[in-house]
Amino acid sequence: MANKFVDLVGGSDANNGSTFALRKKTLSSAAAVAAAGDVIRVEQVVEGQCADLNAFALGPDGRPSLRFDAARTRAAHGLRVSTGATLWSVPPERALLEIVADTAGPHDLTFPACSAFEFAGICRQTDHSNCVDLQRETQRQWGLAPADAHDPLNLWLTTDVLPDGRLCYWP
Question: The whole model's pTM is what?
Answer without folding.
Answer: 0.84
